[in-house]
Amino acid sequence: MIKLINVSKEYKNGVKALSNIDLNIKKGEFVYLVGSSGAGKSTLVKLLLKEEEPTEGQIYLNQMDITKVRNRKVPYIRRNIGVVFQDFRLLPNKTVYENIAFAMEIVGVPSKEIRRKVPSILSLVDLSRKSSSFPDQLSGGEQQRVAIARAIANNPPILLADEPTGNLDPDTAWEIMKLLSDINGGGTTILMATHAREIVNTMRKRVIAIQEGVIVRDEEKGGYGDEIPDVQKYY
Ligand SMILES: Nc1ncnc2c1ncn2[C@@H]1O[C@H](COP(=O)(O)OP(=O)(O)OP(=O)(O)O)[C@@H](O)[C@H]1O
């Protein structure tokens, strides 16, 4: 489902963010990507979204080498991969309903289907009653649930989550993890970059640890790892 062969990424300023990464994630897996700040986690996520190009190597999503895909075909890749970020990234001038509907409109879903599907996705994330609210009228956890609803609206086989619980209090973070777990239970492959030690240690899923751009550990039912210092929170 996700396969990286000898992938390296050096940014234009000479920073080598990833070096010779080999990785294979199968359909339906839930994988945590852990590592200190600056280890290369977000870079890996950006390569999978084709927001950045690798300097070397091949990246396969669903058997397709996305490094060979032309830029105008990028929307096709994005249909196969939903994404959630720490800072939610909802459209502030659109309601909850419209945020989800918009994600479907831009990939050409007919309006009749959008009208049918948005309510069921809202019910899945337990936000039916907030359908007409704007993002700034929602709590952080609710905003993240909308972001997840939007990410799965087009039924992508893969969901990437870049620190999805980073801005949430512990109880709300666990709610989000329950939701992601349920989505994974439905067959969606999930790759989640995180600093949430307790979550990783409790869930016991596959853990891939990166340090200075290199995979240093890949464990089934792994833990967060004592080698990684806790991030200091400045907010
Ligand atoms: N656009 C860029 N240009 C140059 N260097 C970059 C760029 N983006 C990231 N880097 C560098 O690449 C390295 C990896 O960064 P990356 O954001 O992937 O780390 P991370 O593991 O996601 O960190 P964090 O946990 O703090 O989000 C760091 O040294 C960072 O400074």
TrEMBL record:
It is a peripheral membrane protein. Keywords: ATP-binding, Cell cycle, Cell division, Cell membrane, Membrane, Nucleotide-binding. It is found in: Cell membrane. SUPFAM superfamilies: P-loop containing nucleoside triphosphate hydrolases (SSF52540). InterPro entries: AAA+_ATPase, ABC_transporter-like_ATP-bd, ABC_transporter-like_CS, ABC_transpr_LolD-like, Cell_div_FtsE, P-loop_NTPase. GO terms for biological process: cell division. PROSITE patterns: ABC_TRANSPORTER_1, ABC_TRANSPORTER_2. Pfam families: ABC_tran. Belongs to the ABC transporter superfamily. Homodimer. Forms a membrane-associated complex with FtsX. Part of the ABC transporter FtsEX involved in cellular division. This is Cell division ATP-binding protein FtsE. The gene is ftsE.
